[in-house]
Amino acid sequence: MCDNSPVEAADVLVVEDAPEFTRIVTTVLQNAGHQVRTAATMTEALAALAVASPDIVILDLGLPDGDGLDLCRLIRERSSVYVLILTGRDNEADKLIGFRLGADDYVTKPFSSRELAARVEALLRRPRTDPNTTPPRVFGDMVVDSVAREVTVAGAPVDLTRIEFDLLDVLSGDPKAVFNRQQLLDRVWGPGWFGDDHVVDVHIANLRKKVDQVGERSWVRTVRGVGYSMAG
Ligand code: CA
User: What pLDDT is recorded for position 223?
Assistant: First the structure.
């Protein structure tokens, strides 16, 4: 799906110690309609984050009082804010560490204003699940993590397809509810999907094969004549 509508104005915290870059980034963001606050050190950034929740943090790695990667990790421990790393350090190791620490994007200096504006806009279009309001769901020895899109059974990760994960995500998101096939089609395949609703049964069977063979018991229940739910 291609969405050409303008993104909503965002609150952006720019963490950058070089005034010339702070100026460029601020101008680019303000021209795109965003609100900008700035922090020149890690200490200032943490103070700013303690009093307000921005939508995006644009983060320089070389800060006078610490490494931006450490700040990235601290931010990720407490919030799902978008983090875009903006740095002169153009090496693969930093990029990998940045992404592993939860950065959403990485732009290296020098960059064009247009590129930065486009990257910020792309971030704002991404759906985001808030880890603070969506804790992992635990069913016996099975854990469903909607944010990381991961399922573990008895501590071991289970490799699910997108459809299998989405089915489990819907069922486990409301474990007392019974979903009929049409409801699952609407939620997982989308309301525009036309086809045999028994496709749901096929994917549920595959899902069960994967999560039940290692687990202590089955967590997906068939409600005869109705549909599916989590097992109580
Ligand atoms: Ca710097």
Answer: 93
Burial of 221 (0-12, 13-18, 19+ CB in 10 A): middle
> pLDDT of 74-94, one tens digit each?
887 777 788 899 988 777 777
**Which residue spans within the chain are E strands per DSSP?**
11-15, 35-39, 56-59, 62-63, 66-67, 82-87, 105-108, 137-139, 142-145, 150-153, 156-158, 179-180, 220-223, 227-230
- Structural domain contains residue 221: yes
Cα 81 to ligand 1 centre (Å): 21
49 and 150 assigned to the same domain: no
Distance in Å, CA 85 to ligand 1 centroid: 11
Distance 82 CA to ligand 1 centre (A): 20
Checking 150-155 for CB contacts under 8 A at 24+ apart, the result is 151/211, 153/211, 153/214, 153/215, 154/214, 154/215, 154/216
Domain assignment present for 160 = yes
More confident residue, 78 or 14: 14
| Most confident residue range from 23-37, 70-84, 178-192 | 23-37
Distance 63 CA to ligand 1 centre (A): 5
Q: Which domain holds residue 203?
A: 137-230
